[in-house]
Design a protein that fits this description.
With 583 residues, the protein is of the alpha+beta class. It contains 14 helices and 27 strands. The protein is 38% helix and 28% strand. A hairpin with a 5-residue loop joins strand 5 and strand 6. The chain is globular. The chain binds adenosine monophosphate.
Length: 583
């Protein structure tokens, strides 16, 4: 069995880590970076790009590029890229495949198992979708853990002192707050709350809207109608936001952003931190309610907190840090790198599951909670709570169902997630039908249905006929999840890209080796040994050189077929053989 890696599959950036020598370390990607942009693209040639190369070409290939797909996980939205549709799970799987391949290159062994983190506030469909993405990428997901909990695991390593910690996690697309008690070898999550649709992207969007409005007023041109202009605006807006975390003012320049009657139009704007704070004040404010709710659910007051950990890149925004300080009056700890601590914590959990020896203090036992209440719909459309939010997981609850009509052989049960009183205001996570109920008068059959929330936060349902002790048939149909067959098909599709990536790597290596051989032979021919070589032998080498140059001509890794790669390698080997006495 290979090693289990920890993966932070982020909205904006993703990061992988593994245990080495008892400690978690970040796995650098093929580009040498510690985090990988969560961006996927299909180039015009059909080639798939993931991470930095995909992000770099986003402006010129807006229709073929997708970012922030995490926001769509658990929905049935289809993402259209250059005319082909993908489920969010498939796009996430492409990112996971890259992290997997980079980890394999780093570790020098196959990687087939992972712990993946999700926002604490992710519901069942989103967790299931994340697990499916792992499968599509060829990874067995050993555990889904909550991001803030992972951060606290990473933190628990250094501290280890008994304390109550608030993890305030504002990433690219989601906001979570978790209250965790660390001590006596246990990290117990007391409460968690959040907003799945609040993150750094929303701050960028405010700057984009402000820039577009200003431009419309000045030039009468709607930049939002042009996808390429929007991509450029987004990139600049993110850059400006980041700059304003350190500087009090920044300049945004986008030359040739549009064309007017008089020719090209340029965008130039100046944004101060005060201006940025004013246009995003309500977003910062929106984090207050989940903090209050989490404290209330945990039965804590703000002054019970010993430590505040800031996680997620967007917590670098000074107004966000100021807001945290105002709410809880504890100066946030700077002990962790907000971009990496989630992956490091995931690696700690992965190491535990994989049986790695962990350094002292890193073997914290993790007790997590379910973020949302689980209910079923009962008469009158009421959501009857079965498992309350913030219950420690894994947990289970059983309830006996019976029939409402005589000789009824099936019962339909709707499972809901959410805090509202009426079924229709909550998220329907699945329907199931109890079948094979024996013929009896209404109210006679006794079927015990058990709802489990497993350690991943994923809901499982089973049923037993109390008369006969037999298991009842249950088919749960999720609202947005992929079927088994769809997952398998997607996994096969994704595996094709692994082949493509391998071919591309082989092509790049063959190109490099060919160029290096030409250079070496040239240098040798020019040297004393080359000059002393008999004429026929020299002619033979020159011929092999020409053949290799022909094979190399106008070849790029993108355009090469496996046959081209083989031909190039054969030509290079022939040259090396001919020039062997010189080399
Ligand atoms: P994460 O999903 O945790 O990687 O968070 C990414 C989000 O953090 C994105 O919206 C980034 O634009 C944002 N971010 C990263 N660095 C900074 C910074 N220095 N200032 C403000 N936001 C940042």
């Amino acid at each position: 069995m290979g090693r289990v890696i920890g993966i932070d599959l982020g909205t904006t950036n993703s990061c992988a880590a593994v245990i080495e020598g008892g400690h978690p370390v970040v796995i650098p990607n093929a580009e040498g970076q510690r985090t990988t942009p969560s961006v996927v693209a299909f180039a015009k040639t059909g080639e798939r790009l993931v991470g930095e190369p995909a992000k770099r070409q986003a402006v010129t290939n807006a229709a073929g590029t997708v970012a922030s797909v995490k926001r769509l996980m658990g929905t049935d939205t289809q993402i259209s890229l250059n005319g082909k549709n993908y489920a969010p799970q498939q796009i996430s799987a492409f990112i996971l495949q890259k992290l997997k391949a980079d980890a394999e290159a780093y570790l020098g062994e196959p990687v087939t198992e992972a712990v993946i983190t999700v926002p604490a506030y992710f519901g069942d469909a989103q967790r299931q979708a994340t697990k499916d993405a792992g499968r599509i990428a060829g990874l067995t997901v050993r555990r889904i853990i909550n991001e803030p909990t992972a951060a606290s695991l990473a933190y628990g390593l250094d501290g280890g002192q008994p304390q109550t910690v608030m993890v305030y996690d504002l990433g690219g697309g989601t906001f979570d707050v978790s209250l965790i008690r660390i001590g006596d070898g246990v990290a117990q999550v007391l409460a968690t709350c959040g907003d799945n649709h609040l993150g750094g992207d929303d701050f960028d969007a405010r700057i984009v809207a402000w820039l577009a409005q200003g431009f419309q007023k000045e030039h009468g041109v709607d930049l939002m109608a042009d996808p390429i202009a929007v991509q450029r605006l987004r990139q600049e807006a993110e850059g400006a936001k980041k700059a304003l975390s350190a500087a009090l003012q920044t300049v945004i320049d986008l030359p040739f952003i549009a064309t007017g009657p008089q020719g090209p139009l340029h965008l130039h704007a100046e944004l101060t931190r005060a201006g940025f704070d004013a246009m995003t004040a309500d977003l910062v404010e929106r984090t207050a309610l989940p903090v209050r709710n989490a404290l209330q659910d945990a039965g804590l007051a703000a002054n019970d907190l010993d430590q505040v950990l800031l996680v997620g890149g967007a917590t670098r925004i000074p107004a966000v840090q100021a807001k945290v300080l105002r709410m809880v009056d504890v100066a946030p700890s700077k002990a962790l790198n907000p971009d990496e601590c989630v992956a490091l914590g995931a690696a700690v959990q992965a190491g535990r599951l994989g049986g790695e020896a962990l350094a002292a203090g890193e073997g914290l036992l993790l007790l997590d909670v379910t973020p949302l209440t689980l209910s079923i719909e009962t008469v009158g459309g009421v959501a009857t709570h079965l498992i309350e939010r913030n219950s420690t997981i894994p947990t289970r609850y059983s309830r006996v169902f019976t029939t409402a009509a005589p000789f009824q052989s099936t019962v339909e049960i709707k499972v809901l997630q959410g805090e509202r009183q009426l079924a229709r205001d909550n998220t329907l996570i699945g329907n199931f039908t109890l079948t094979g109920i024996k013929r009896a008068w209404a109210g006679v059959p006794q079927i015990e249905v058990t709802f489990d929330i497993d350690a991943n936060g994923i809901v499982k349902v089973s049923a037993k006929d109390l008369d006969t002790g037999k298991q009842q048939g249950i088919t749960i149909t999720g609202t947005s999840n992929l079927s088994e067959a769809e997952i398998e098909r997607a996994a096969r599709d994704a595996a094709l890209y692994t082949g493509q990536d391998r071919e591309r790597k082989a092509a790049i290596e063959a190109l490099n080796a060919a160029e290096a051989a030409l250079y070496r032979v040239d240098a040798a021919l020019g040297g004393p040994a080359g000059k002393a070589l008999p004429r026929e032998q020299k002619a033979h080498i020159k011929e092999a050189q020409k053949a290799l140059e022909r094979a190399l001509r106008r070849k790029t890794a993108e355009a090469m077929t496996p046959a081209d790669t083989d031909a190039l390698t054969a030509a290079r080997t022939a040259l090396e053989a001919a020039a062997a006495p010189l080399l």
